[in-house]
Amino acid sequence: MPGSVTLKSPINALKGVGTKRAEQFHKLGVDTVYSLLRYYPRRYINYTEYLPIAQTVIGENNVVRARVYQKSPESRIRKGLSLYKVFVTDDETEMVITIFNSKYMYEALKLGQEYVFYGKVTGNLFKREMNAPSFVPYTEQMKMMPIYSLTEGLSNKMIASAVETGFRLTDDAVFDPIPADITENYGLCHLNFALHNIHFPENQNALETARKRLVFEELLTLQLGMLLLKKRNREESGVSIKEYDWSGFEALLPFSLTGAQKRVIADCVEDFHCTVPMNRLVQGDVGSGKTMVAAALGYLMAKNGYQTAVMAPTEILSEQHYRTFCRTFENTGIRVCLLTGSLTKSVKEKETAKIAAGEYDVIIGTHALIQDSVQFDRLGLVVTDEQHRFGVAQRSKLAAKGENPHLLVMSATPIPRTLGLIIYGDLDISVIDELPAGRQKIDTMAITGKKRERALHFIRGQLDRGLQGYIVCPLIAEEGESELKSVTGYAAALEKGPLRGCRIEILHGKMKAKEKDAVMERFKQGKTQLLVSTTVIEVGVDVPNAVIMMIENAERYGLSQLHQLRGRVGRGSEKSYCILISDNTGEDNRKRLKTLCETSDGFRIAEEDLKLRGPGDFFGARQHGLPDLKIADMAADMEILKQTQQLAKRILEKDVGLRLPENKGLRRLVSLLFAHGDGQFFH
User: Fold this and answer.
1) How far apart are CA 409 and CA 607, in angstroms?
2) Would you state the pLDDT for residue 422?
3) CA proximity to 214, closest of 545, 556, 640, 546
C-alpha cells in the first residue's frame, strides 16, 4: 500500500476516504494527498497546559484536567431535547459538565476516569460549569490538538485522521522546495518537520518553528510571483502614443483639477512615453477625483486612436462611471458604451460587435468585459476601479485582450504605504492626497443604542428639509435572536414609528440587478428620502443631496470600510453627518470609533485599522486581489514579508525564470499559488 500512494494521488486513495467524503474534501479545496497535507489547522487546543478549576476564567475558553465522580441520568427538557449532567473534580474544586442531545458523548465519559476538557467556563466564584466541551482521556503524553475549518459532513476528527494516514503513507516523498542554502541562512526547518508540526505539534516551540518556515515559504512564493508579474508586464507595449497634449481635456470640465490630480495624470503620461506598458496603482481617498484621472487618460487614448476599457465591480458603479464619462465627453466625438451582465443577449451581441469594430472609444463595464466574447479593436488602456474587488488574474485577463496595453488600477481603500508596496508589488504607486474644492467635512459621532431615538429625530429633521440619507445594517433579514440589525426589519420599524410618512426604500445584494438599479435611480432622483441598505452602497454611489449616513452595529465593520461608507455623503453643498451606533463599549471598539470621529485621513485610518484589527479584517475575505494565503498574516509577519521581498529580488536577479535546478521547487510553488490566475509566468 505505501508504494501505491504518492503526494499526487487523489484524496480518495487514502483508506477511509470514499467517493462521498472525497467530494466533501473538494469543497475545502483538498483534492490530492499533497493539498491535504497543505490544509493547515486554523487553531489548536493545547491539552498540555491546563488550569485548576478554581483558576479558570469565567466567560472564556479554558483547558481543565478533572476526574468524573458522578453522572446524572438523562433528563428530557422538551420534545427532541435531552440533557445530561456529568460532575467532575480536580480534587480541589468541582465543576458541572452539561451535554445536550449526545448520549454517545455522555457514555464516553467513564466514572472514575480522568479527562482533559476544553470549553467556555460559566458560573460564579462558587460554582463552575462547562457546556458541551471537547475532551480527551488524560495520559502522561498529552498533545496539542489541531482544529480545522470544516464543511458539512466532515468532522475535525475525520480531517485529522486523513492527515495522519497521508503522513504515514507518503513520509519519504515530501520534497523541500526551498533551496538548502536559503533554509540554512534564514534558520528554517525542513518542510517535512514543518508539515508534521503544523498539524500535530510536539510542543509550542515546534509549532512556532513550523509556522515560521511555512509563512516564509508562502510569502517568498508570493513575492516571486508578484515580481514575475511585474517583469512580464515590462514586455514591450504594442500601444504607440504620439499625441501627449491633454490640455483640451481640462477645457471640457466645469471645475479645475486639483494639483494632486494633475500630478497623477502627469505620472501616467510619463509612463506612456516608455516602450513598456504603464502598470500603475492610483490610490485616492473617497471623493478625491480618481475617475477624472481615468477620464483624462481615456481622452488621450481616444486622441491617439486607441480604446479604453474601464472595469468596475458593480453595475451601480459601472453605470455611474458611464454617466460621468458621457457627460464629460459630450460634443467631443468620443464615443462611450456600457457593457454589463444585465443587458439582454441581443443588446450585448450588438454592443460587442461595435466594440470589436472600433465604433466605441471608451468601454465601461463589470466582469462582463473579461468574457471571451468581448474583443477590442485597438485596446490601449485598461482601468480597473476598486482594485481590491478584483484578483490579479482578472486584470491580467482584460489586459490580454490588447497588445500589452497600459494598465491603471484605482482604489479608494487606503492601504498603508509599506503594505501597499508589498501587496501591489507588480505596480508603481501614485497617491491623490488632496480633495477637490468644495468637499464638505463630515461631522462624525459614535453613540450607543440609547441615543438612537434622538438620532432618528435628527434624521427626520434633515429629511423634512428636503435632504436625503442612508442607514446601513449588517443583515438583510432578521436571523433568530441575533442582536444585529436587519435591513428589512429596520425599514419596517421606521415606517411604523419615528419616520412614519417618509419615503423609505431598501437595498441589498440579494436583489436582482434591475431591482437595485430601479431603487438607486429613484433615490438619485429624490423620489426616495431614505435608503436602508447593506454595504452594497459602500462603493461609488454619488448622490450630492444625501447628507446623513447612519451605521448600525458599527463594531462589525473595519475602520476602512466605515470610512468608505462615510464617503457616500458630504458630496454636495449641505453640511453632512455620519452617526456610528454600537453597543459594544469595550476599550478596543471605543478606540477604533474614536479614530474615525477624529480624522478623515484615509491613510491614517488604514494604519489604525491594520494595528487594531489585523489584516484578516482589514482586507476582508479575498478583498486584496491576491492569491489565497493559507497561513501568513500580512501585519504580524511584516518582518518576514520584508525579508522575503529582498530575497525574491536577489533570486530573480540570478535566475530570471527560476530555471536553475535548485529553484525548480520555487518555480512549482509559484505556479501553484497563482494557479487560479492565467498562471503563464513561465514560457
Assistant:
1) 21
2) 59
3) 640
